Amino acid sequence: MTLIRFFVLVFFFALPAAAELRIDVTGARSEPTPVAFPDIGAYTPETQAIAADMARVIESDLVRSGLFRIVNRDAYIQHLASVSDRPRFADWQAIKAHALIQAQLDAMPDGAIRISFRLWDVFMQQQMEDRVLSTAPDGWRKLAHRVADIVYSRITGETGYFDTKVAFISETGNQRKRTKRLAVMDSDGANVRYLTDGADMVLTPRFSPNMREIAYFSYKGGQPRVYIMDLATNASRLVGQFAGMTFAPRFSPDGRKLIMSLATRGNSDIYLHDLATGQTTQLTNNPAIDTSPSFAPDGKKIVFNSDRSGRQQLYVMDADGGNVRRISFGEGSYATPVWSPRGDYIAFTKIKDGQFHIGLMRPDGAGERLIVNGWAVEAPSWAPNGRVLSFFRQEPWDERGAGGRTKIYTIDVTGYHEQLIPTPQDASSPAWSPLLH
Amino acid sequence: MFKQLCAVMMACAILSGCAGKSGSELYGEDGGWKDDVNIMDLKTTGLTDKLKATGYDVVYFKLDSSELNAEARANLAKQAVWLKDNPKALIVVEGNCDERGTTEYNLALGEHRANAARNYLMSNGIEAKRIRTISYGKDKPAALGSTEEAWAKNRNAASVAY
Protein backbone atom coordinates (compact mmCIF):
# COMPACT_ATOMS: atom_id res chain seq x y z
CA MET A 1 0.00 0.00 0.00
CA THR A 2 2.73 2.39 1.01
CA LEU A 3 4.59 1.39 -2.10
CA ILE A 4 1.58 2.14 -4.29
CA ARG A 5 1.18 5.51 -2.63
CA PHE A 6 4.84 6.19 -3.25
CA PHE A 7 4.48 5.43 -6.91
CA VAL A 8 1.32 7.50 -7.17
CA LEU A 9 3.16 10.41 -5.62
CA VAL A 10 6.09 10.02 -7.98
CA PHE A 11 3.70 9.75 -10.88
CA PHE A 12 1.76 12.79 -9.72
CA PHE A 13 4.77 15.01 -9.25
CA ALA A 14 6.26 13.93 -12.52
CA LEU A 15 3.39 15.62 -14.35
CA PRO A 16 2.50 19.26 -14.72
CA ALA A 17 -0.32 20.06 -12.26
CA ALA A 18 -2.49 21.49 -15.03
CA ALA A 19 -2.87 18.08 -16.57
CA GLU A 20 -5.28 16.94 -13.89
CA LEU A 21 -8.97 17.17 -14.66
CA ARG A 22 -10.00 20.68 -13.64
CA ILE A 23 -12.92 22.93 -14.56
CA ASP A 24 -12.41 26.64 -14.14
CA VAL A 25 -15.81 27.97 -13.03
CA THR A 26 -14.73 31.59 -13.43
CA GLY A 27 -13.63 31.30 -17.02
CA ALA A 28 -15.40 31.49 -20.32
CA ARG A 29 -18.22 29.17 -21.18
CA SER A 30 -17.19 25.59 -21.81
CA GLU A 31 -19.00 22.43 -22.79
CA PRO A 32 -20.15 20.38 -19.78
CA THR A 33 -17.51 17.84 -18.73
CA PRO A 34 -18.64 14.27 -19.52
CA VAL A 35 -18.87 12.14 -16.40
CA ALA A 36 -19.51 8.40 -16.30
CA PHE A 37 -21.70 7.50 -13.35
CA PRO A 38 -22.66 3.82 -13.35
CA ASP A 39 -25.50 2.65 -11.10
CA ILE A 40 -24.63 2.80 -7.42
CA GLY A 41 -23.93 -0.79 -6.35
CA ALA A 42 -26.45 -2.10 -3.81
CA TYR A 43 -27.26 -5.62 -2.73
CA THR A 44 -30.57 -5.59 -0.83
CA PRO A 45 -33.98 -4.37 -2.05
CA GLU A 46 -33.89 -1.56 0.54
CA THR A 47 -30.45 -0.27 -0.38
CA GLN A 48 -31.22 -0.68 -4.08
CA ALA A 49 -34.22 1.63 -3.77
CA ILE A 50 -32.24 4.25 -1.84
CA ALA A 51 -29.27 3.93 -4.20
CA ALA A 52 -31.50 4.66 -7.19
CA ASP A 53 -32.95 7.74 -5.47
CA MET A 54 -29.51 8.96 -4.45
CA ALA A 55 -28.16 8.49 -7.97
CA ARG A 56 -30.98 10.69 -9.30
CA VAL A 57 -30.18 13.47 -6.82
CA ILE A 58 -26.41 13.32 -7.42
CA GLU A 59 -26.89 13.35 -11.18
CA SER A 60 -29.40 16.19 -10.98
CA ASP A 61 -27.05 18.31 -8.82
CA LEU A 62 -24.10 17.80 -11.16
CA VAL A 63 -26.09 18.42 -14.33
CA ARG A 64 -27.89 21.47 -12.90
CA SER A 65 -24.53 23.07 -12.13
CA GLY A 66 -24.08 23.26 -15.89
CA LEU A 67 -20.51 22.02 -15.55
CA PHE A 68 -21.16 18.30 -16.03
CA ARG A 69 -23.12 15.92 -18.19
CA ILE A 70 -23.62 12.23 -17.53
CA VAL A 71 -22.45 9.97 -20.34
CA ASN A 72 -25.27 7.72 -21.55
CA ARG A 73 -25.22 4.57 -19.43
CA ASP A 74 -26.04 2.33 -22.42
CA ALA A 75 -22.58 3.11 -23.76
CA TYR A 76 -20.68 1.85 -20.72
CA ILE A 77 -18.37 -1.05 -21.61
CA GLN A 78 -17.08 -2.11 -18.22
CA HIS A 79 -19.50 -3.33 -15.60
CA LEU A 80 -18.25 -2.23 -12.18
CA ALA A 81 -19.81 -4.67 -9.74
CA SER A 82 -18.46 -3.04 -6.61
CA VAL A 83 -16.57 0.00 -5.46
CA SER A 84 -13.44 -2.08 -5.05
CA ASP A 85 -13.35 -3.12 -8.72
CA ARG A 86 -10.48 -1.44 -10.53
CA PRO A 87 -11.71 0.61 -13.52
CA ARG A 88 -10.38 -0.38 -16.95
CA PHE A 89 -9.55 3.16 -18.00
CA ALA A 90 -9.39 2.31 -21.71
CA ASP A 91 -13.08 1.32 -21.55
CA TRP A 92 -14.03 4.68 -20.07
CA GLN A 93 -11.73 6.67 -22.34
CA ALA A 94 -13.35 4.91 -25.30
CA ILE A 95 -16.74 6.42 -24.41
CA LYS A 96 -15.10 9.83 -23.88
CA ALA A 97 -15.80 10.11 -20.17
CA HIS A 98 -13.41 12.50 -18.46
CA ALA A 99 -14.38 11.50 -14.93
CA LEU A 100 -15.84 8.35 -13.43
CA ILE A 101 -17.90 8.15 -10.26
CA GLN A 102 -17.89 4.67 -8.77
CA ALA A 103 -20.16 4.14 -5.78
CA GLN A 104 -21.68 1.50 -3.59
CA LEU A 105 -24.37 1.71 -0.91
CA ASP A 106 -24.53 -0.68 2.07
CA ALA A 107 -26.78 -1.09 5.07
CA MET A 108 -24.93 -1.07 8.39
CA PRO A 109 -25.84 -3.37 11.33
CA ASP A 110 -27.09 -0.35 13.32
CA GLY A 111 -29.53 0.57 10.54
CA ALA A 112 -27.42 3.35 9.04
CA ILE A 113 -26.66 3.53 5.34
CA ARG A 114 -23.08 3.85 4.12
CA ILE A 115 -21.96 5.07 0.73
CA SER A 116 -18.44 4.32 -0.48
CA PHE A 117 -17.41 6.19 -3.58
CA ARG A 118 -14.40 6.96 -5.71
CA LEU A 119 -13.88 9.71 -8.23
CA TRP A 120 -11.48 8.87 -11.04
CA ASP A 121 -9.69 11.04 -13.55
CA VAL A 122 -10.14 8.81 -16.57
CA PHE A 123 -7.38 10.26 -18.76
CA MET A 124 -4.82 10.58 -15.98
CA GLN A 125 -5.96 7.15 -14.69
CA GLN A 126 -5.83 8.59 -11.22
CA GLN A 127 -8.06 8.37 -8.21
CA MET A 128 -9.18 11.90 -7.22
CA GLU A 129 -11.32 10.95 -4.23
CA ASP A 130 -11.98 7.88 -2.10
CA ARG A 131 -14.62 8.55 0.53
CA VAL A 132 -16.96 6.64 2.82
CA LEU A 133 -19.93 8.56 4.30
CA SER A 134 -22.74 7.30 6.49
CA THR A 135 -26.07 8.52 7.83
CA ALA A 136 -29.50 7.33 8.94
CA PRO A 137 -31.59 6.08 5.97
CA ASP A 138 -33.90 9.13 6.05
CA GLY A 139 -30.84 11.34 5.50
CA TRP A 140 -30.24 9.86 2.04
CA ARG A 141 -31.04 13.07 0.21
CA LYS A 142 -28.56 15.10 2.22
CA LEU A 143 -26.01 12.31 1.78
CA ALA A 144 -26.50 12.47 -2.00
CA HIS A 145 -26.02 16.27 -2.01
CA ARG A 146 -22.84 15.78 0.01
CA VAL A 147 -21.46 13.32 -2.54
CA ALA A 148 -22.24 15.78 -5.34
CA ASP A 149 -20.56 18.57 -3.34
CA ILE A 150 -17.40 16.48 -2.99
CA VAL A 151 -17.30 15.70 -6.72
CA TYR A 152 -17.95 19.34 -7.65
CA SER A 153 -15.39 20.59 -5.18
CA ARG A 154 -12.67 18.12 -6.22
CA ILE A 155 -13.01 18.92 -9.92
CA THR A 156 -13.57 22.68 -9.75
CA GLY A 157 -11.43 23.56 -6.73
CA GLU A 158 -14.42 25.53 -5.40
CA THR A 159 -16.55 24.65 -2.39
CA GLY A 160 -19.72 22.78 -3.27
CA TYR A 161 -23.16 24.27 -2.68
CA PHE A 162 -25.65 21.44 -3.18
CA ASP A 163 -26.01 20.55 0.51
CA THR A 164 -27.58 23.92 1.30
CA LYS A 165 -31.03 25.41 1.84
CA VAL A 166 -32.82 28.30 0.23
CA ALA A 167 -35.25 30.44 2.24
CA PHE A 168 -37.84 32.10 0.04
CA ILE A 169 -41.32 33.60 -0.17
CA SER A 170 -43.95 31.18 -1.43
CA GLU A 171 -46.68 33.05 -3.30
CA THR A 172 -50.23 32.16 -4.26
CA GLY A 173 -53.27 34.07 -5.46
CA ASN A 174 -53.95 36.85 -7.94
CA GLN A 175 -52.63 40.40 -7.93
CA ARG A 176 -55.50 41.63 -5.75
CA LYS A 177 -55.16 38.95 -3.14
CA ARG A 178 -51.61 37.64 -3.09
CA THR A 179 -50.66 35.41 -0.16
CA LYS A 180 -46.97 35.36 0.77
CA ARG A 181 -45.53 32.77 3.11
CA LEU A 182 -42.06 32.27 4.49
CA ALA A 183 -40.62 28.91 3.40
CA VAL A 184 -37.37 26.96 3.13
CA MET A 185 -36.33 24.24 0.70
CA ASP A 186 -33.27 22.24 -0.25
CA SER A 187 -31.06 23.83 -2.92
CA ASP A 188 -32.73 21.64 -5.57
CA GLY A 189 -36.30 22.56 -4.55
CA ALA A 190 -36.99 19.40 -2.51
CA ASN A 191 -38.27 19.32 1.09
CA VAL A 192 -40.28 22.56 1.02
CA ARG A 193 -41.23 23.57 4.54
CA TYR A 194 -43.60 26.48 5.21
CA LEU A 195 -42.71 28.63 8.22
CA THR A 196 -45.65 31.05 8.31
CA ASP A 197 -49.33 30.48 7.59
CA GLY A 198 -49.86 33.33 5.13
CA ALA A 199 -52.09 35.42 7.41
CA ASP A 200 -49.53 38.23 7.46
CA MET A 201 -47.65 39.33 4.37
CA VAL A 202 -43.93 38.57 4.72
CA LEU A 203 -40.97 39.66 2.58
CA THR A 204 -37.17 39.39 2.26
CA PRO A 205 -36.02 36.41 4.36
CA ARG A 206 -32.28 36.17 5.24
CA PHE A 207 -30.44 33.31 6.95
CA SER A 208 -28.26 33.86 9.99
CA PRO A 209 -24.65 32.69 9.47
CA ASN A 210 -25.21 29.69 11.78
CA MET A 211 -28.45 28.88 9.90
CA ARG A 212 -30.47 28.65 13.08
CA GLU A 213 -32.50 31.77 12.39
CA ILE A 214 -34.11 33.71 9.59
CA ALA A 215 -34.53 37.49 9.71
CA TYR A 216 -37.54 38.68 7.71
CA PHE A 217 -40.01 41.52 7.24
CA SER A 218 -43.65 41.07 8.23
CA TYR A 219 -46.88 43.08 8.41
CA LYS A 220 -47.82 41.17 11.57
CA GLY A 221 -50.26 43.18 13.70
CA GLY A 222 -50.63 45.72 10.90
CA GLN A 223 -47.21 47.15 11.71
CA PRO A 224 -44.47 46.40 9.20
CA ARG A 225 -41.26 45.46 10.98
CA VAL A 226 -38.31 43.09 11.06
CA TYR A 227 -38.59 39.81 12.96
CA ILE A 228 -36.22 36.93 13.61
CA MET A 229 -37.55 33.37 13.50
CA ASP A 230 -35.87 30.57 15.43
CA LEU A 231 -35.92 27.62 13.02
CA ALA A 232 -35.87 25.04 15.83
CA THR A 233 -39.12 26.32 17.38
CA ASN A 234 -40.67 28.39 14.54
CA ALA A 235 -41.11 31.17 17.13
CA SER A 236 -40.57 34.74 15.91
CA ARG A 237 -39.38 37.70 17.92
CA LEU A 238 -39.57 41.38 17.05
CA VAL A 239 -36.17 43.00 16.51
CA GLY A 240 -35.86 46.06 18.76
CA GLN A 241 -38.45 48.72 19.54
CA PHE A 242 -38.41 51.45 16.96
CA ALA A 243 -40.80 54.30 16.23
CA GLY A 244 -41.13 53.46 12.57
CA MET A 245 -40.84 50.73 9.99
CA THR A 246 -37.78 48.48 10.11
CA PHE A 247 -36.97 46.62 6.88
CA ALA A 248 -34.20 45.23 4.65
CA PRO A 249 -32.48 43.15 7.36
CA ARG A 250 -29.23 41.22 6.96
CA PHE A 251 -27.02 39.59 9.56
CA SER A 252 -23.42 40.65 10.17
CA PRO A 253 -20.92 37.92 9.19
CA ASP A 254 -20.40 37.00 12.88
CA GLY A 255 -24.18 36.75 13.37
CA ARG A 256 -24.14 39.06 16.38
CA LYS A 257 -25.71 42.06 14.72
CA LEU A 258 -28.47 42.85 12.32
CA ILE A 259 -28.11 45.64 9.83
CA MET A 260 -31.33 47.12 8.46
CA SER A 261 -33.21 50.22 7.43
CA LEU A 262 -35.46 52.23 9.70
CA ALA A 263 -38.01 54.55 8.13
CA THR A 264 -39.45 57.23 10.39
CA ARG A 265 -41.34 60.33 9.38
CA GLY A 266 -40.43 60.04 5.75
CA ASN A 267 -36.73 59.31 6.11
CA SER A 268 -34.97 55.95 5.68
CA ASP A 269 -31.54 55.46 7.19
CA ILE A 270 -29.36 52.45 7.97
CA TYR A 271 -29.00 51.16 11.52
CA LEU A 272 -26.88 48.50 13.16
CA HIS A 273 -28.64 46.55 15.89
CA ASP A 274 -26.68 44.47 18.40
CA LEU A 275 -28.80 41.35 18.96
CA ALA A 276 -27.31 40.54 22.39
CA THR A 277 -27.40 44.01 23.97
CA GLY A 278 -30.23 45.55 21.98
CA GLN A 279 -28.01 48.57 21.37
CA THR A 280 -28.70 50.36 18.09
CA THR A 281 -26.31 52.58 16.14
CA GLN A 282 -27.40 54.86 13.32
CA LEU A 283 -24.94 54.51 10.44
CA THR A 284 -26.34 56.86 7.80
CA ASN A 285 -28.03 60.21 8.27
CA ASN A 286 -29.32 61.53 5.01
CA PRO A 287 -32.75 62.78 3.92
CA ALA A 288 -32.62 60.44 0.92
CA ILE A 289 -33.61 56.77 0.92
CA ASP A 290 -30.77 54.65 2.31
CA THR A 291 -31.57 50.94 2.27
CA SER A 292 -30.55 47.34 1.37
CA PRO A 293 -27.33 47.23 3.40
CA SER A 294 -25.04 44.19 3.09
CA PHE A 295 -21.82 43.44 4.96
CA ALA A 296 -18.51 42.50 3.34
CA PRO A 297 -17.53 38.98 4.48
CA ASP A 298 -14.81 40.42 6.77
CA GLY A 299 -17.41 42.61 8.47
CA LYS A 300 -15.36 45.76 7.89
CA LYS A 301 -17.37 47.38 5.13
CA ILE A 302 -21.04 47.73 4.18
CA VAL A 303 -22.48 48.22 0.71
CA PHE A 304 -25.90 49.88 0.47
CA ASN A 305 -28.37 51.54 -1.85
CA SER A 306 -29.13 55.27 -1.74
CA ASP A 307 -30.87 57.79 -3.97
CA ARG A 308 -29.02 60.73 -2.41
CA SER A 309 -27.57 61.64 -5.81
CA GLY A 310 -31.09 61.87 -7.25
CA ARG A 311 -31.09 58.33 -8.55
CA GLN A 312 -30.55 54.94 -6.85
CA GLN A 313 -26.84 54.16 -6.72
CA LEU A 314 -24.58 51.86 -4.72
CA TYR A 315 -22.32 53.12 -1.94
CA VAL A 316 -19.71 51.49 0.28
CA MET A 317 -18.99 52.68 3.83
CA ASP A 318 -16.97 51.48 6.81
CA ALA A 319 -18.80 49.34 9.36
CA ASP A 320 -19.13 52.39 11.64
CA GLY A 321 -20.78 54.47 8.92
CA GLY A 322 -17.67 56.47 8.03
CA ASN A 323 -15.85 56.88 4.74
CA VAL A 324 -18.90 56.72 2.45
CA ARG A 325 -18.14 56.53 -1.24
CA ARG A 326 -20.21 55.89 -4.32
CA ILE A 327 -19.19 52.87 -6.40
CA SER A 328 -21.81 52.75 -9.20
CA PHE A 329 -21.75 55.30 -12.01
CA GLY A 330 -23.52 53.66 -14.93
CA GLU A 331 -26.87 54.64 -16.42
CA GLY A 332 -30.04 53.42 -14.75
CA SER A 333 -30.91 52.66 -11.14
CA TYR A 334 -28.94 50.26 -8.96
CA ALA A 335 -30.52 48.37 -6.06
CA THR A 336 -30.21 45.40 -3.63
CA PRO A 337 -26.40 45.13 -3.51
CA VAL A 338 -25.13 41.89 -1.95
CA TRP A 339 -21.49 41.31 -1.11
CA SER A 340 -20.16 37.93 -2.24
CA PRO A 341 -19.12 35.58 0.59
CA ARG A 342 -15.70 35.46 -1.12
CA GLY A 343 -15.47 39.24 -1.09
CA ASP A 344 -14.60 39.52 -4.76
CA TYR A 345 -17.91 40.74 -6.21
CA ILE A 346 -20.96 42.78 -5.33
CA ALA A 347 -24.12 41.51 -7.01
CA PHE A 348 -26.97 43.95 -7.58
CA THR A 349 -30.27 44.58 -9.34
CA LYS A 350 -30.24 47.22 -12.04
CA ILE A 351 -33.20 48.89 -13.71
CA LYS A 352 -32.49 50.52 -17.05
CA ASP A 353 -34.69 51.39 -20.02
CA GLY A 354 -37.65 49.53 -18.57
CA GLN A 355 -35.70 46.29 -18.14
CA PHE A 356 -34.41 44.65 -14.97
CA HIS A 357 -30.96 43.08 -14.71
CA ILE A 358 -28.84 41.18 -12.23
CA GLY A 359 -25.26 42.40 -12.43
CA LEU A 360 -21.87 42.07 -10.81
CA MET A 361 -19.12 44.57 -10.06
CA ARG A 362 -15.92 44.56 -8.06
CA PRO A 363 -16.21 46.09 -4.56
CA ASP A 364 -14.58 49.27 -5.88
CA GLY A 365 -17.21 49.50 -8.63
CA ALA A 366 -14.94 48.34 -11.45
CA GLY A 367 -15.81 45.73 -14.05
CA GLU A 368 -19.60 46.08 -14.09
CA ARG A 369 -21.16 43.17 -15.93
CA LEU A 370 -24.86 42.30 -16.36
CA ILE A 371 -25.50 38.54 -16.23
CA VAL A 372 -29.31 38.31 -16.22
CA ASN A 373 -31.99 40.45 -17.78
CA GLY A 374 -35.74 40.29 -17.98
CA TRP A 375 -39.01 42.11 -17.54
CA ALA A 376 -38.56 41.81 -13.79
CA VAL A 377 -35.60 40.11 -12.11
CA GLU A 378 -34.61 40.87 -8.56
CA ALA A 379 -33.04 39.79 -5.29
CA PRO A 380 -29.64 38.24 -6.07
CA SER A 381 -28.44 35.94 -3.28
CA TRP A 382 -25.05 34.23 -3.22
CA ALA A 383 -24.43 30.51 -2.90
CA PRO A 384 -21.93 30.03 -0.07
CA ASN A 385 -19.12 29.36 -2.56
CA GLY A 386 -19.58 32.79 -4.14
CA ARG A 387 -19.64 31.30 -7.63
CA VAL A 388 -23.39 30.86 -8.14
CA LEU A 389 -26.28 33.25 -7.51
CA SER A 390 -29.99 32.74 -7.01
CA PHE A 391 -32.56 35.36 -7.97
CA PHE A 392 -36.19 35.47 -9.06
CA ARG A 393 -38.04 36.39 -12.20
CA GLN A 394 -41.57 37.73 -12.36
CA GLU A 395 -43.92 37.78 -15.34
CA PRO A 396 -46.31 40.68 -16.02
CA TRP A 397 -49.90 40.67 -14.71
CA ASP A 398 -52.80 40.82 -17.09
CA GLU A 399 -55.59 43.39 -16.74
CA ARG A 400 -57.61 40.99 -14.56
CA GLY A 401 -54.70 40.58 -12.14
CA ALA A 402 -53.83 37.07 -13.27
CA GLY A 403 -50.33 35.98 -14.24
CA GLY A 404 -47.49 37.62 -12.38
CA ARG A 405 -45.82 34.24 -11.93
CA THR A 406 -42.65 34.33 -9.82
CA LYS A 407 -39.92 31.70 -10.08
CA ILE A 408 -36.50 31.24 -8.54
CA TYR A 409 -33.43 30.56 -10.69
CA THR A 410 -29.72 30.05 -10.20
CA ILE A 411 -26.90 31.26 -12.45
CA ASP A 412 -23.10 31.15 -12.50
CA VAL A 413 -21.03 34.31 -12.08
CA THR A 414 -20.01 33.70 -15.69
CA GLY A 415 -23.59 34.47 -16.70
CA TYR A 416 -24.14 30.94 -17.97
CA HIS A 417 -26.04 27.90 -16.74
CA GLU A 418 -29.30 29.55 -15.67
CA GLN A 419 -31.43 26.88 -13.97
CA LEU A 420 -34.94 26.93 -12.53
CA ILE A 421 -35.37 25.70 -8.96
CA PRO A 422 -38.74 23.95 -9.24
CA THR A 423 -41.19 24.94 -6.47
CA PRO A 424 -44.75 23.77 -5.77
CA GLN A 425 -46.07 27.35 -5.92
CA ASP A 426 -44.76 30.69 -7.15
CA ALA A 427 -41.57 31.61 -5.35
CA SER A 428 -39.65 34.86 -4.89
CA SER A 429 -36.97 36.53 -2.77
CA PRO A 430 -34.52 33.59 -2.45
CA ALA A 431 -31.93 33.65 0.32
CA TRP A 432 -29.23 31.05 0.03
CA SER A 433 -28.09 29.45 3.29
CA PRO A 434 -24.49 29.12 4.37
CA LEU A 435 -22.89 25.72 3.78
CA LEU A 436 -24.42 23.18 6.16
CA HIS A 437 -21.19 21.34 6.93
CA MET B 1 -80.91 51.11 47.50
CA PHE B 2 -78.88 52.79 50.24
CA LYS B 3 -80.32 50.45 52.83
CA GLN B 4 -79.40 47.44 50.74
CA LEU B 5 -75.88 48.70 50.32
CA CYS B 6 -75.55 49.21 54.07
CA ALA B 7 -76.79 45.73 54.68
CA VAL B 8 -74.26 44.27 52.28
CA MET B 9 -71.45 46.26 53.86
CA MET B 10 -72.46 45.22 57.37
CA ALA B 11 -72.68 41.59 56.37
CA CYS B 12 -69.31 41.85 54.78
CA ALA B 13 -67.81 43.50 57.88
CA ILE B 14 -69.24 40.80 60.13
CA LEU B 15 -68.03 37.95 57.95
CA SER B 16 -64.52 39.25 57.38
CA GLY B 17 -64.06 41.02 60.66
CA CYS B 18 -62.30 43.94 59.03
CA ALA B 19 -64.76 46.60 57.96
CA GLY B 20 -62.27 49.08 56.47
CA LYS B 21 -60.84 46.86 53.77
CA SER B 22 -63.85 45.44 52.02
CA GLY B 23 -63.14 45.04 48.32
CA SER B 24 -60.21 47.40 48.29
CA GLU B 25 -57.57 44.74 47.76
CA LEU B 26 -59.18 43.68 44.52
CA TYR B 27 -60.25 47.00 43.09
CA GLY B 28 -57.92 49.63 44.52
CA GLU B 29 -58.80 52.66 46.60
CA ASP B 30 -61.82 53.62 44.53
CA GLY B 31 -63.41 50.28 45.03
CA GLY B 32 -65.23 48.52 42.24
CA TRP B 33 -68.28 50.73 42.32
CA LYS B 34 -67.01 53.89 40.72
CA ASP B 35 -68.84 54.29 37.44
CA ASP B 36 -68.53 57.83 36.14
CA VAL B 37 -67.04 56.69 32.81
CA ASN B 38 -68.93 58.50 30.11
CA ILE B 39 -69.05 56.75 26.75
CA MET B 40 -69.79 59.09 23.91
CA ASP B 41 -71.37 57.93 20.69
CA LEU B 42 -69.51 59.89 18.01
CA LYS B 43 -72.21 59.00 15.47
CA THR B 44 -69.61 58.88 12.73
CA THR B 45 -70.48 55.84 10.70
CA GLY B 46 -69.05 55.00 7.33
CA LEU B 47 -66.04 57.30 7.58
CA THR B 48 -64.00 55.13 5.24
CA ASP B 49 -66.58 55.33 2.47
CA LYS B 50 -67.29 59.01 3.09
CA LEU B 51 -63.68 60.07 2.59
CA LYS B 52 -63.37 57.77 -0.40
CA ALA B 53 -66.47 59.32 -1.96
CA THR B 54 -64.86 62.77 -1.90
CA GLY B 55 -62.22 61.67 -4.40
CA TYR B 56 -59.64 63.61 -2.41
CA ASP B 57 -58.47 60.53 -0.59
CA VAL B 58 -55.71 59.58 -3.05
CA VAL B 59 -52.80 61.58 -4.43
CA TYR B 60 -50.48 60.39 -7.17
CA PHE B 61 -46.74 60.61 -7.69
CA LYS B 62 -44.27 60.64 -10.54
CA LEU B 63 -42.01 57.64 -11.12
CA ASP B 64 -39.45 57.23 -8.31
CA SER B 65 -40.64 60.39 -6.59
CA SER B 66 -42.31 61.29 -3.31
CA GLU B 67 -42.74 64.93 -4.28
CA LEU B 68 -46.25 66.37 -4.14
CA ASN B 69 -47.23 68.11 -7.36
CA ALA B 70 -49.77 70.94 -7.56
CA GLU B 71 -52.68 68.57 -8.09
CA ALA B 72 -51.64 66.41 -5.13
CA ARG B 73 -51.33 69.47 -2.89
CA ALA B 74 -54.74 70.75 -3.98
CA ASN B 75 -56.29 67.35 -3.21
CA LEU B 76 -54.62 67.20 0.20
CA ALA B 77 -55.81 70.71 1.02
CA LYS B 78 -59.37 69.53 0.32
CA GLN B 79 -58.73 66.37 2.31
CA ALA B 80 -57.61 68.57 5.21
CA VAL B 81 -60.89 70.48 4.98
CA TRP B 82 -62.78 67.19 5.09
CA LEU B 83 -60.78 66.14 8.16
CA LYS B 84 -61.65 69.43 9.85
CA ASP B 85 -65.31 68.89 8.98
CA ASN B 86 -65.05 65.41 10.44
CA PRO B 87 -63.01 66.13 13.56
CA LYS B 88 -63.53 62.69 15.05
CA ALA B 89 -62.14 60.86 12.03
CA LEU B 90 -58.67 59.33 12.12
CA ILE B 91 -56.77 58.33 9.00
CA VAL B 92 -54.06 55.95 7.95
CA VAL B 93 -52.13 57.11 4.89
CA GLU B 94 -51.03 54.12 2.82
CA GLY B 95 -47.98 54.72 0.64
CA ASN B 96 -47.82 52.64 -2.53
CA CYS B 97 -45.49 52.13 -5.48
CA ASP B 98 -45.67 50.67 -8.94
CA GLU B 99 -44.10 47.25 -9.48
CA ARG B 100 -41.16 48.62 -11.49
CA GLY B 101 -38.86 48.97 -8.50
CA THR B 102 -37.17 46.59 -6.07
CA THR B 103 -38.98 45.38 -2.94
CA GLU B 104 -36.87 47.13 -0.31
CA TYR B 105 -36.51 50.44 -2.13
CA ASN B 106 -40.26 50.49 -2.73
CA LEU B 107 -40.98 49.95 0.95
CA ALA B 108 -38.93 53.07 1.68
CA LEU B 109 -40.47 55.00 -1.21
CA GLY B 110 -44.01 54.13 -0.06
CA GLU B 111 -43.12 55.37 3.40
CA HIS B 112 -41.77 58.61 1.98
CA ARG B 113 -44.93 59.12 -0.09
CA ALA B 114 -47.23 58.49 2.87
CA ASN B 115 -45.24 60.94 4.96
CA ALA B 116 -45.19 63.58 2.24
CA ALA B 117 -49.00 63.46 2.35
CA ARG B 118 -49.03 63.42 6.14
CA ASN B 119 -46.72 66.42 6.37
CA TYR B 120 -48.87 68.39 3.96
CA LEU B 121 -52.03 67.58 5.93
CA MET B 122 -50.24 68.69 9.11
CA SER B 123 -49.17 71.94 7.48
CA ASN B 124 -52.88 72.41 6.71
CA GLY B 125 -53.67 72.21 10.40
CA ILE B 126 -54.43 68.52 10.94
CA GLU B 127 -53.05 67.17 14.23
CA ALA B 128 -50.22 64.65 13.88
CA LYS B 129 -52.01 62.24 16.19
CA ARG B 130 -54.86 61.82 13.74
CA ILE B 131 -52.59 60.54 10.97
CA ARG B 132 -50.88 57.17 10.92
CA THR B 133 -48.75 56.07 7.96
CA ILE B 134 -47.93 52.67 6.50
CA SER B 135 -45.99 51.64 3.42
CA TYR B 136 -47.11 48.72 1.31
CA GLY B 137 -44.30 49.08 -1.21
CA LYS B 138 -45.46 47.37 -4.39
CA ASP B 139 -47.61 44.80 -2.59
CA LYS B 140 -50.99 46.54 -2.48
CA PRO B 141 -51.69 47.74 -6.01
CA ALA B 142 -54.84 49.81 -6.50
CA ALA B 143 -55.00 49.02 -10.22
CA LEU B 144 -54.49 45.60 -11.76
CA GLY B 145 -52.28 44.72 -14.67
CA SER B 146 -48.76 45.55 -15.79
CA THR B 147 -49.47 48.65 -17.84
CA GLU B 148 -48.31 52.27 -17.68
CA GLU B 149 -51.86 53.27 -16.70
CA ALA B 150 -51.95 50.82 -13.81
CA TRP B 151 -48.49 51.85 -12.63
CA ALA B 152 -49.48 55.54 -12.61
CA LYS B 153 -52.46 54.68 -10.40
CA ASN B 154 -50.32 52.55 -8.11
CA ARG B 155 -47.85 55.35 -7.33
CA ASN B 156 -49.97 56.90 -4.62
CA ALA B 157 -50.62 57.88 -1.05
CA ALA B 158 -54.15 56.78 -0.18
CA SER B 159 -55.83 58.02 2.99
CA VAL B 160 -58.24 55.62 4.65
CA ALA B 161 -60.51 57.15 7.28
CA TYR B 162 -61.89 55.21 10.22
Q: What is the approximate shape of chain B?
A: elongated
CATH-scheme architecture of the largest domain in chain A: 6 Propeller
Could you give a short account of the major beta sheet of chain A? 5 strands, mixed
- Helix content, binned percent of chain A: 10-25%
Q: Care to describe what's here?
A:
The complex is a heterodimer of chains A (437) and B (162). Chain A is mostly beta strands and 437 residues long. Chain A folds into 2 domains: 2-156, TolB, N-terminal domain (Rossmann fold), CATH 3.40.50; 165-432, 6 Propeller (Neuraminidase). Helices cover 13% and strands 41% of the residues of chain A. Chain A is built from 4 helices and 29 strands. Chain A has a 5-stranded mixed sheet, with helices on one face. In chain A, a hairpin with a 5-residue loop joins strand 15 and strand 16. Chain A is globular and about 70 Å long. In chain A, 46% of the residues are buried. Mean pLDDT of chain A is 94; it is low at 1-18. Chain B is an alpha+beta fold. Chain B has 2 domains: 1-33, no CATH class; 47-161, 60s Ribosomal Protein L30, Chain: A (2-Layer Sandwich). Helices cover 44% and strands 12% of the residues of chain B. Chain B is built from 6 helices and 4 strands. Chain B has helices spanning 2-16, 24-27, 47-54, 70-85, 103-123, 148-154, and strands at 58-60, 91-95, 131-135, 156-161. Chain B has a 4-stranded mixed sheet. Chain B is elongated, with a radius of gyration of 26 Å. At the A-B interface, strand 13 and strand 21 of A face helix 5 of B.
List the helices and strands and how they pair.
The complex is a heterodimer of chains A (437) and B (162).
Chain A: H1 2-13, E1 33-36, H2 45-64, E2 68-70, H3 89-94, E3 99-107, E4 113-121, E5 126-135, H4 140-156, E6 165-172, E7 179-186, E8 193-194, E9 202-207, E10 213-218, E11 225-230, E12 236-238, E13 245-251, E14 257-264, E15 267-274, E16 280-282, E17 290-295, E18 301-306, E19 313-318, E20 325-326, E21 333-339, E22 346-352, E23 355-361, E24 369-374, E25 377-382, E26 388-394, E27 406-412, E28 419-421, E29 426-432
Parallel strand pairs in A: 1-2, 1-3
Antiparallel strand pairs in A: 3-4, 4-5, 6-7, 6-29, 7-8, 9-10, 10-11, 11-12, 13-14, 14-15, 15-16, 17-18, 18-19, 19-20, 21-22, 22-23, 23-24, 25-26, 26-27, 27-28
Helix pairs in contact in A: 2-4
Chain B: H1 2-16, H2 24-27, H3 47-54, E1 58-60, H4 70-85, E2 91-95, H5 103-123, E3 131-135, H6 148-154, E4 156-161
Parallel strand pairs in B: 2-3
Antiparallel strand pairs in B: 1-4, 2-4
Helix pairs in contact in B: 4-5
